[in-house]
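Recap for those who missed Tuesday's class. We walked through two folding examples back to back. For each one, the amino acid string is listed first and its predicted C-alpha cells come directly after. Nothing is annotated here on purpose, so try labeling regions yourself before you check the end of the notes.
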Amino acid sequence: MKKEENKWDKVEGSASKSSGNLGSGAYTPQYAKKNAPRYSPKRTVRSFRDLEVYQVTIECSVIICAELIPILEKDKFPLVEGMRNCTLSIPLFIAEAHGMRFADFNRAAATLEQAVQGCNKMIVYLEQVQGLSHNADASFTEDMLNRYLRVRGKMLRLEQSWQKFQNTKR
C-alpha cells in the first residue's frame, strides 16, 4: 500500500518527514549549519595597539619600508621619500586619535581623518608605482593597495562608532 503524498512532503525540513517529533529536523538556524562562520566577540580595546586599523597599517608600513622602498630607491623613483613618510605617518595618526578621543573628540576625529587621507595618498602612490616602476611586483602592490582600501573603510566605521559612544556618554 502506497502512502499518500501531501504538498508538504516536498518541502525541505518538513515535519512529516521527521520521526514523528515535530521539533526534530524541522529547522536548522544559519549559525548552527555545518559550514557557518562562528561568531566570536571582539576583544576589548585597551590601547591603540589593540585596534585592527592600527595593526594593519603598521604591518603595511613595515612591509612597504622593508620590501618596496629599496626596490624603488634602486629604480630612482621620484616619490620614495613622500611614500615613506606617508606610510609611517598613518599608524601615528591612529595612535594620536585614539589617545585624544575623550579629551577633545573633534580633534581626535580630525586626526583620524588625516589617517584616512594618508590611506588615500598611499593608494595613489601604489598606483603610481604600478605604472612607473618595472621592477616592483604587481601582485605585491595590488595586495598593499587592497589592504589600504579595506583599512580605510574600517577607519571610517571606527570614527562612526566613536561618534555613537560620544553621543551616548552625554
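Example two. Treat it independently of the first, because the proteins are unrelated.
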Amino acid sequence: MEHGGGLITTSRVLKLFHEMGWDILRCLVPEIKYIHDRKLVNDEAVKLLSCIFQEMRQLSKLELEKMDLNTIIYDAIKHGIIEFITEMLKYNPEIIWKKDERGRTIFSHAIVLRQEKIFSLIYGLGTKKSIMVRRHDIFRNNYLHLAAKLSPPSQLERVSGAALQMQRELQWFKEVEKIVQPKLKEEVNENNKTPEVLFSDEHKELVKDAESWMKNTAGSSMIVGTLIAAVMFTTAFTVPGGNKNDTGLPTMLESHPQGFMIFMVSNALSMFSSSTSLLMFLGILTARYAEEDFLKSLPTKLIFGLACLFFSVATMMASFGASLYLILHDQLSWVTIPIIVLSIIPIALFSICQFPLLIEMTNRTYGSGIFNKPKKISSNN
C-alpha cells in the first residue's frame, strides 16, 4: 500500500509540475495558449467531422445528391481544408474517381487551386496513382496542363516577390511533370497546346514582373556593395596611426598588434565579400531570364549575393570598431565602447530588412519542398 501510495503521490507531483510548467510557459509566451486552444478546437472539429461522415453512411443516394457534395468538396479544396478531404477519403475512398461537370477530380482541383497539401494525398494512393494521373477534363487537359495554368491571385499573393512566385509556379509544374507519363508531356489540349506551351503563354506577364523584381533587387544591392568595396579598398591603404617613415610599415602593427590584425582581417574580409556580392549581382543583371532560370539559378545567385553583402556589412562595422579602438583607446578609451556598440545598429537594421527575404528564398530553393508524401490513406470501410 505504501508503495502504491508513493506512486500516486509521485504521479500527482509530476502532474502538478506539468501544470505549473504550462502556466509559466503561457505567461512567458502568450501565443502558446492561442496555438494550444486552436489545436484543441481543430482536434474536436476533426472528431465531429468523422461522426458526420459515419452518419452519412445511413443516407440514401438521393439524400446525398441533395447535399451537393461537389460544391462542398470544391470549397474544402479551395480553402485548403485537408482534414475534410482526408476524412472524406476514409469515409468513401472511391470519391477520388468522382468528376464534376468539367470532368475534374479532387486532385485536378487541387492542382488548379494550388493546394499542395491536398494534392500530396495522391502519393498515398499506391498503384491507383498511375491511373489517376492519366485523367483528363472535358477540355482535354491532363494534369500537366492544369499545372501549367497560372495560380489564382489568392495563392500568388501568399508568396513575396514576383521571382519567388515564378519559382513556386515552376516547382508545381516540375512536381506534376515527375508523376505523369512521358507521352502526356507532349499531349495537346482542345486549344492544340502542349503543357509547356501553355505554361509559357500563361506566365508571360509573371516572367516580366519577376525579371524586373530581380533586376531592381540586384541593382539596389549592387550600389551598397560597390560603396562598401570602395570604402574598404581606400581604408586598406590609409591605416589608423599612419606608417613609419623609414620602413613604411604601419605604426600600430608593433604597438597594438592584436587590434591592428582585427582591423586588417575584417577589412580584407569585407572587401572580398563585397566584391563577391558584386559579381553575383552582376550575374543576375546579365542573365538571360529564361523561365527555367527562376527555379534555381537566379535564386541561388541572389541568395549568395545577399549573404555576402550581409557579411561585408558586418565585417565593415568590425573594421570600423577596431579602427576607433586603435585611435582612441589611449586617451578616450571610454568613448570606444559605446561607439562600437552603436556600430551593431546597421547590422541589425540590415538583418531586419533583408534576412526574412534571404531565409524565405533559401527555404524555398533548398528546403524540403512544398510537397510531402504521406503514407497510404487508410479506409474506415
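Answers for example two:
The chain has two domains: 59-202, 206-366.
Residues 59-202 form a domain with the Serine Threonine Protein Phosphatase 5, Tetratricopeptide repeat fold (CATH 1.25.40.20).
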